[in-house]
Specification:
three-stranded antiparallel β-sheet, single chain, mainly beta, rod-shaped, four-stranded antiparallel β-sheet
Amino acid sequence: MLMRTDPFRELDRLAQQLIGPGTWSRPSPMPMDAYREGDAYVVAFDLPGVTPDAIDVDVERNMLTVRAERRPVTKADDVQMELSERPMGVFSRQIVLADTLDTEHIDAGYDAGVLTLRIPIAERAKPRKISVGVGPGRREISG
């Protein structure tokens, strides 16, 4: 059997072991994607193994904060861990939102380990046509 090793993966694993899991005062980052879909911005966060009740989403002014905690699975007393590579602890990400987004109507969904936030574009920021009216004509001012 051919085994491929990645020295950088081992370094990442060792660094994670030395640094330890994220805490509320020093959370680990979480990967995300952000894109525009129609009249909304979509932000998707990878949070595999996190229960929905361990996810906290806050918006204050234009700062979006997502925090999540992956807790260890409780095991029986006779279980001996052989290998543990899945990161545990607290994960967090902050994003500054544009003023053109409607933070009052953010929709959040969680499916298959992915938290998806849909942030609609504010009505005032959407492109609109302005009609040009025709005036009554020229007027001469006499003095």
